[in-house]
Specification:
Elements (H helix, E strand, L loop, with lengths): L22 H8 L15
Length: 45
Amino acid sequence: MQSTPGKLIGVSLGPGDPDLITRAAWTQLQRRDTRWVYPVRSGKS
């Protein structure tokens, strides 16, 4: 059995306005096979 290599696509919103996301990034987030998490920090940094 031959395995298929995976693909990692990183999407970052950065420190600016979170409403300003590129169309390419939004398209990737809308894909059914896309899994994403939003890291949450507890406490102050």
